[in-house]
Write a structure and sequence with these properties.
Elements lengths: L1 E7 L2 H4 L18 H4 L2 H6 L1 H14 L7 H14 L5 E7 L5 H5 L4 E3 L2 E8 L26 E5 L9 H10 L2 E5 L11 H5 L4 E6 L11 E4 L2 H14 L1
Parallel strand pairs: 1-2, 1-6, 2-3, 6-7, 7-8
Antiparallel strand pairs: 4-5
Bound molecules: adenosine-5-diphosphoribose.
Adenosine-5-diphosphoribose binds next to helix 1.
């Protein structure tokens, strides 16, 4: 029984029209991470942060899952139908819902989700598809204490217990479309190297020595379906 963990980053959604964070037209070229993606930045100027995520949220419906998202979902579907003996878990750094819209169910959002808010007063995490502002009342406790349910720099990523369990059990670790500069995700490959094979699918070669057994360069919509076809044909 194959146990595969796939870590995805912004690069897997790039061909769906969603901007990556770094690189040519990366989101962090126009915004300062400390203003947008830290609790301090939110405390200092919540409206600026809400507007940034409102803009990303408004762009999401027009983006469609691409061939790479669909290829991963097809592997999970083959496992569910018994056509393939294995388990494929997606651990995503992405806050979009393209894996789910492609049909994947075993998806762990370690950096949170764009389509969810979190009330800092009562803890409720409502699904949210429209704009949110500093005075938007929480649907549960009605206090104006909602924030994006996104993990910002300096905060603990979500679901690390189940992620670490799946990493410890896997025999193959695959990273797709991630620059490998943000921890703890960037350290996953080292944590599995002793017991699993590792593969990186990326557009560009990573800066510095890539600790992966294999590096497959190219657009994810080409490289990932080719890999999953081989995987399912076993
Ligand atoms: N196919 C494959 N890889 C691609 C493609 C593509 N079509 N387009 C871009 N890439 C690659 C880039 O070469 C780059 O290495 O995807 C990677 C995207 O890197 P980042 O923009 O840094 O995104 P990511 O690695 O997901 O960022 C990690 O940083 O800002 C935080 O929380 C944010 O989750 C994010 C984290």
């Amino acid at each position: 029984m194959r146990r595969i963990v796939v870590l995805t980053g912004a690069g897997i959604s790039q061909e769906s029209g969603l901007q990556t964070f770094r690189g040519a037209d990366g989101l962090w070229n126009n915004e300062h991470i400390e203003h947008i993606c830290t609790p301090q930045g939110f405390r200092r100027d919540p409206l600026r942060v809400d507007r940034f995520y409102n803009d990303l949220r408004a762009r999401l419906p027009a983006a469609q899952p691409n061939a790479a998202h669909l290829a991963l979902a097809a592997v999970e579907q083959a496992a569910r139908s018994g056509r393939w003996q294995g388990q494929l878990t997606i651990v995503t750094q992405n806050i979009d819902d393209l894996h789910e819209r492609a049909g994947s169910q075993d998806v762990i959002h370690m950096h949170g989700e764009l389509l969810r808010l979190r009330c800092t007063r009562c803890g409720m995490t409502p699904v949210w598809r429209t704009d949110c502002y500093p005075d938007t009342p929480c649907p549960a406790c009605h206090a104006p204490t909602l924030r994006p349910d996104i993990v910002w720099f300096g905060e603990m990523p979500y679901h690390m217990d189940i992620i670490e369990k799946r990493l410890a059990e896997c025999d193959l670790f695959v990273a797709i479309g991630t620059s490998g500069v943000v921890y703890p995700a960037a350290g996953f490959v080292d944590s599995v190297a002793a017991h699993a094979d590792t593969m990186l699918f990326n557009l560009e070669a990573p800066s510095g020595p890539a600790p992966f057994d294999q590096t497959i360069l190219g657009p994810a919509t080409h490289t990932v379906p080719a890999w999953t076809r081989d995987l399912l044909e076993g």
